[in-house]
Write a structure and sequence with these properties.
Layout lengths: L3 E6 L6 H17 L4 E3 L25 H13 L2 E9 L6 E8 L5 E6 L24 E4 L2 E5 L8 H9 L4 E6 L7 H16 L2 E6 L10 E3 L5 E4 L5 E6 L2 H10 L14
Parallel strand pairs: 1-2, 2-3, 7-8, 8-9
Antiparallel strand pairs: 1-12, 3-4, 4-5, 6-7, 9-10, 10-11
Helix pairs in contact: 1-2
InterPro entries: C-N_Hydrolase, C-N_Hydrolase_sf, UPF0012_CS
Pfam family, one: CN_hydrolase
Keywords: Hydrolase
Length: 265
């Protein structure tokens, strides 16, 4: 079997201390289940739903208070952690929607900067954030390769395919998936679609209500939901199996049958 992973969800707010407390509680809870990897939502550091609010004074560097907490928790509980925050951009007056990828030793493995900003459904994320350049951020854990993306990236199948081409057999998707007409269905459908079309696991952690959908889940390479955290604050976990990926790819060799490649614009 492969690594034991957990998705940990909560409703982030503008109270950074409360957000850090929730992260501390959820990582401990996930670690107690035996998880080797804990995935927290997008905007775990600071979350504001009003697109007109200027929150540049709330941004932090990667090694600021939030990043330092994530590193300390990873080391304390001997778990890898992926968590979303908004980072200071030294090159502009905007922030960067960033995922921290921290190893079980507390060391930063990499960061992923959200490529597709949420300029949809009445929001304009690009008004206050700078998009990252398309880059496949992957890391190894428990004999599997994980690739990272964030929220709105899920609506772009080429983002997942870029990660799979880089060797990913599991996709990590932290999100703050805003509620709305058909939005919960979109979330579930797209997570399962990315799993099915790429024959990979999908490990997705979303913020909870009232603004966001929750429904953090782990989906297997056949599109089967093997863990679901529901709508409330909490944790769901599953053990991934690299043999499951191999057997599904043998039965459904869609990646081998491809006739198109993916390249960034």
């Amino acid at each position: 079997m492969g690594p034991h992973v957990a998705v940990a969800q909560f409703g982030g707010s503008t109270d950074k201390a409360a957000n850090r407390a929730a992260v501390r509680e959820l990582v401990a809870q996930a670690a107690a289940t035996g998880a080797e990897l804990v995935v927290l939502p997008e905007y775990s550091m600071y979350a504001v739903q009003d697109p007109k609010v200027d929150y540049r004074d709330q941004l932090e560097p990667v090694d600021g208070e939030f990043g330092s907490l994530v590193s300390a928790l990873a080391k304390e509980h001997s778990v890898a952690i992926v968590a979303g925050m908004t980072v200071v951009d030294e090159q502009s007056d905007k922030g960067i929607n960033t995922l921290l990828v921290v190893g079980a030793d507390g060391e930063l493995i990499d960061t992923y900067e959200k490529v597709h900003l949420y300029d949809a459904f009445g929001f304009r994320e690009s008004d206050r954030l700078r998009a990252g350049d398309p880059r496949a951020v992957t890391f190894e854990l428990g004999g599997m390769t994980f690739g990272t993306m964030t929220c709105y990236d899920l609506r772009f199948p080429e983002m997942a395919r870029l990660l799979v081409d880089a060797g990913a057999d599991a996709l990590i998707v932290p999100a703050a998936w805003v509620v709305g007409s058909a939005k919960e269905d979109h979330w579930t459908t797209l997570l399962r679609a990315r799993a099915i079309e790429n024959t990979v696991y999908v490990v997705a952690s979303g913020q909870t209500g009232p603004q966001c959908t929750g429904l953090s889940m782990v989906v297997d390479p056949m599109g089967v939901v093997v863990a679901n955290a529901g709508e409330a604050k909490g944790v769901a976990s599953a053990v991934l199996d690299p043999e499951r990926v191999a057997s599904v790819r043998k039965r459904n060799p869609s990646l081998a049958n491809r006739r198109f490649t993916v390249a960034p614009k």
